Amino acid sequence: GENVEQHPSTLSVQEGDSAVIKCTYSDSASNYFPWYKQELGKRPQLIIDIRSNVGEKKDQRIAVTLNKTAKHFSLHITETQPEDSAVYFCAASKGSGGSNYKLTFGKGTLLTVNP
Amino acid sequence: EPEVTQTPSHQVTQMGQEVILRCVPISNHLYFYWYRQILGQKVEFLVSFYNNEISEKSEIFDDQFSVERPDGSNFTLKIRSTKLEDSAMYFCASSPRDTYYEQYFGPGTRLTVT
What we know:
The structure holds two protein chains of two kinds.
Chain A: E1 4-7, E2 10-14, E3 19-25, E4 32-38, E5 45-51, E6 56-59, E7 62-67, E8 72-77, E9 86-92, E10 104-105, E11 109-114
Parallel strand pairs in A: 2-11
Antiparallel strand pairs in A: 1-3, 3-8, 4-5, 4-9, 6-7, 7-8, 9-10, 9-11
Chain B: E1 5-7, E2 10-13, E3 19-24, E4 29-37, E5 43-50, E6 53-57, E7 65-68, E8 75-79, E9 88-96, E10 104-105, E11 109-113
Parallel strand pairs in B: 2-11
Antiparallel strand pairs in B: 1-3, 3-8, 4-5, 4-9, 5-6, 7-8, 9-10, 9-11
């Protein structure tokens, strides 16, 4: 089955710096790659996603890039702020219909943004 | 903004007891999932549910587990005879018709089996 590896497990940056989190996946049939942010004690929140027919997607300060050939995708956060501090999870899915989009998650990255 | 809700937030039970975890998906969503996260480990897929039947289940989802949508709003996960290793955070998620790949998670139920 699918395996998703995520690095680094912890990341500490200064406010205003950029943060990059990387994930690799094993199943070349995977076609959907979401990123979730989870603050302490709260639900995982979908923050951005990308489908395999595009290479990059941007939403304000966050962007995701996908390299299908290398089977890796990355989350980029620019101009980090203390409220970006959270655990970030990447995931992969190879759904082909609405009922079959089970997600395989990475282990998560604890991002700390220091003021 | 509508959100997935889950009850209870924390459930403590003794080994061998039955537990039912409850979820209320977002009202116009059609696809439902359960995931779990053992402390310090990855979030793992358990089961997906659509059109009143299981679409897919993982190896974890054995005969001790069952899901049900008893009415138009609730989605439940039942564990018949809990084991110590069932202790985990259980997340419910749902997806809408149009963007069916986007899954929105509930806040989770922390299950502690003693």
